[in-house]
Amino acid sequence: MSKSKAIDCPEIDRAPPQVGEIHDAEKYMHHDAVFGDMGEGGPNYRNVRIEHNIVTTTSDLFKLGWIGTAVLMTKTQIGLGVLGIPSVLNTVGLIPGIILLLVVGGITTWSDYIVGDFKIRHRHVYSIDDVGEMLFGPIGREFFGVALSLSFTFIAGSAMLSISIAFNALSNHAICTAIFVAIAAVITFVFASIRTLGKISALAWVGAASIIISVFTVTIAVGVQDRPAAAPQQGPWKSDYKLFSSPTYAEAQTAVSTLIFAYAGTPAFFPIVSEMRDPRQYTKALVACQTLVTVTYITIGLIVYYYCGTYVASPALGSAGAIIKKVAYGVALPGLFVTALLWTHLPAKYIFVRILRGSPHLTANTITHWITWIGSTFTITLVAYIIASSVPVFEDLVSLVGASFQTLLSTQTMGMMWLYDNWPVSKRVRDSRWYIGVAWSVFVIVAGTYLMVGGTYSSILAIIKSYHESGWTAAWSCADNSNSS
């Protein structure tokens, strides 16, 4: 723990009055528009103190400044999604795949920006269910709350499934896969119960680094090897990558859903900015995050698909052979666990805040506080475990989450949020910029709705196909799920 030091929090004095916000430096540590009164003994979610009228922080490691926030945001993005990008290029072709990636990345970056802007305008907003209530009343609050919880929990389940794949790859399928999923769930539960994102951000550094190193290890390996592991090992071989492909409607929709999943962090940015020390640095963190994420996705997708062609694996870590697969999964394992614990922590925190918001138990170390918190993390972990065991095909689960939930939570809702804040302006200020904003927001809403319906339909068909191929025995199976990866 480093010595306490002063930090600059200009939003105390410069930010315009917002719903529920306190503009008093003396009260800044003790009260938050979301978390309420901050007691000395309980968790300090924003990790700020007041000393001699100066806002201070007690640790350089356990805080959410803009760098820590950028790392945490990057970890919500670079996780499971990057492992499916080469397979997307295989489905739609190299050139359409890169174009689609840039389009999805551009739309979600705009959506991410709207999250921060909306939070500054409405400081009482903690999660997307608060937005739902502002847009559609109590029904909207419940609908978005359920969608958020299911989305995050499905991602946690996907992470547990990927951890079981890693365990199988590393151990040569030493025990039943169902047991590996259970082990992943237990470890996830323990670390997801850390109470503040500031402390989890320290783990996010390790998680993001391990995933990036792992996928670049595979990327380099496929570039220097004679051929990918799944290709014919005898005779001459040349990569059969395609600049353009001819996927079916369902395959194309599934590919787009996988890309949406790769940028699935948008709804998680609400609680992240809520625990930032200085929310006005959110945009700086966002630019750093999205730049790193997009460059990484393009680099890995291009190189792996160029050298592997149709023999690319999904997840991509299995594309370079058995030895590299073990190395890659060994390096990636900490990152996969951080993905699982982060996406378990976020929906658990949502439930926890929803139950105790407005109560002194939210920020005090009471029995009610701990029972509610541990109960929330345990419930999310249990549901995620059931999901991981029930839909045991990584690619199908990733596309289902991307289609069913992430389009709604990462695109349409942000279009509605822009309209909510900007539609009521006077006719005298409706300039060309305003009309462009309206047109863009409507486009995002319509396009997102189309992708949500079509992608969900295609993903469900893919899952049914996988079950048919397994003879409907895939759930809670002991079979080695790393063979195709």
TrEMBL record:
List, in alphabetical order, the Gene Ontology terms for molecular function in this entry: L-amino acid transmembrane transporter activity
Give the main localization category.
membrane
Please provide the record's keywords in A-Z order: Membrane, Transmembrane, Transmembrane helix
**Topology within the bilayer:** Multi-pass membrane protein
Q: Does the keyword Transmembrane helix apply?
A: yes
Which stretches are transmembrane? 143-166, 172-191, 203-224, 285-307, 327-346, 367-388, 400-420, 432-453
Instruction: Output the Gene Ontology cellular-component terms.
Output: membrane
- Provide the protein's localization: Membrane
Every Amino acid transporter transmembrane domain range: 65-460
One matching Pfam family, short form?
A: Aa_trans
The entry assigns this protein to a family as follows: Belongs to the amino acid/polyamine transporter 2 family.
Q: PANTHER family in the record, alphabetically?
A: AMINO ACID TRANSPORTER, AMINO ACID TRANSPORTER (EUROFUNG)
The entry's protein name is Amino acid transporter transmembrane domain-containing protein
Record lineage: Eukaryota, Fungi, Dikarya, Ascomycota, Pezizomycotina
